[in-house]
Amino acid sequence: KMLEEFVSHGLLEYSKHGMKVEGATTSLLSPYLHFGEVSVRKVYQLVRMQQIKWENEGTSEAEESIHFFMRSIGLREYSRYLCFNFPFTHEKSLLGNLKHYPWKVDEERFKSWRQGMTGYPLVDAGMRELWATGWTHNRIRVIISSFAVKFLLIPWTWGMKYFWDVLLDADLESDILGWQYISGSLPDGHELSRLDNPEVQGQKYDPDGVYVRTWIPELARMPTEWIHHPWDAPSCILEVAGVELGFNYPKPIVDLHIARECLDDSISTMWQLDTAEKLAELDGEVVEDNLSNIKTFDIPKVVLRETSPCALPIDQRVPHASSKDHNLKSKVLKASNRSSICVDMIRSSKMEATSSVANSPVSRKRSFCETAFHVPSYSSSAEVHSHIQDHGGSLVGPSRYLLQEAGRNCVDEVEDSSTADSGSSISRQRKAA
């Protein structure tokens, strides 16, 4: 019944009431969700049905409120995910560097915070409401927890345990998520260096001072202008309001500027201890970032030649058509055995090239059958992709072509030699005649 009433009437103005900390401006469903009297699925179903109804009616102003409310429900479910996957988060920060954070174990400050005697009206009003009713607005919970962690440097686990003791809707997972979020212990939470001014927060969420006057009767007659920072009020104003700082209402427990300095010093100390621990784990080894000195590197300049030489390395060198005569020349060759000598030369050159390719670094990564050669430009595609030697041991591809050319040259030279010999014999016969 309470859920249906909220969805029908309270949900429409939920986003506007979210900025007000006094009165029943929230759904008040968290205790019922915690004890299982209503499920999250039921809440989602009713909200979704109401959203469809408002869309059909053209009520566009409800979209922001629905988004704001469903985000709160989503954060509650996210706390379950966080605690399930990181079960140590009830006592340790999710970020490892915060284990070196110098928390101040100060019982007196912790007691003043619990009793609502810090001297900051909005914080004190929130703590007094929490103690009296077991309930307070989510905005107030954020403000008072942030004050304990950032101003007083009290360990966040102390505040988490206190909330667990006094809240009616005390939920371990939500409690852990809230305190880790505020203390800067989550990657997507508040920054550790963030310091919210309670005076500014009071003027934002309680501009008329109604909430402060409700829970701090000592400041009931304080003018609205000074209600959130009575320490700055003139003495005559304090006298008329019946406020005597340090007697019936405490002075600020810590100055804002001093709190800022202490927080910065604590963060600096934390990072120093974290760095020292990492260096100790290296056991004397220092890891240096080379990118920081990249501009000072002495890198030799490489000058490329405008025209690259035509000669190839030995393991890639294959006879060209222009060099076939040079490879086949012999100083003294007889016509009777010149053809066999050419064949032996080509086969020996093929064996030498094969041996050099097999010993090259490239060949260690590729098999002999996949070796790439520089083929003459006039070779056909079939000859380009053919292997050097087939399974039968006969020459194929460019080697066969060169062998044929060499054979033809040898035959031509034999014929030329025979013709020359016959011509010379005829001339001798003519001379003899």
Task: Describe what this molecule looks like in 3D.
The chain is mainly alpha-helical and 433 residues long. The protein has 19 helices and no strands. The protein has helices at residues 2-10, 14-17, 30-34, 40-57, 62-85, 107-115, 121-133, 138-151, 156-166, 172-182, 198-205, 210-215, 235-241, 256-281, 324-328, 338-359, 361-365, 381-385, 397-432. Helix 7 (121-133) crosses helix 8 (138-151) and helix 16 (338-359) packs antiparallel against helix 19. The longest helix has 36 residues, at 397-432. Residues 299-336, 349-403 and 413-433 have low confidence and may be disordered. FAD binds at residues 14, 26-30, 69, 169-171. Residues 69-263 form the Cryptochrome/DNA photolyase FAD-binding domain. This is Cryptochrome 2. Keywords: Chromophore, FAD, Flavoprotein.
Shape: globular
Structural class, judged by helices and strands? Answer: mainly alpha
Order of helices and strands: HHHHHHHHHHHHHHHHHHH
Proportion of residues in β-strands: under 5%
Mean pLDDT rating:
74
Task: Report the helical percentage.
Answer: 40-55%
Which second-level CATH architecture of the largest domain applies? Orthogonal Bundle
Distance between the termini: 145 Å
CATH topology of the largest domain: DNA Cyclobutane Dipyrimidine Photolyase, subunit A, domain 3
Protein name: Cryptochrome 2
Binding site for FAD: 14, 26-30, 69, 169-171
Keywords: Chromophore, FAD, Flavoprotein
Site (Electron transfer via tryptophanyl radical): 103, 156, 179
SSE blueprint:
Layout: H1 2-10, H2 14-17, H3 30-34, H4 40-57, H5 62-85, H6 107-115, H7 121-133, H8 138-151, H9 156-166, H10 172-182, H11 198-205, H12 210-215, H13 235-241, H14 256-281, H15 324-328, H16 338-359, H17 361-365, H18 381-385, H19 397-432
Helix pairs in contact: 1-4, 4-5, 5-10, 7-8, 9-10, 16-19
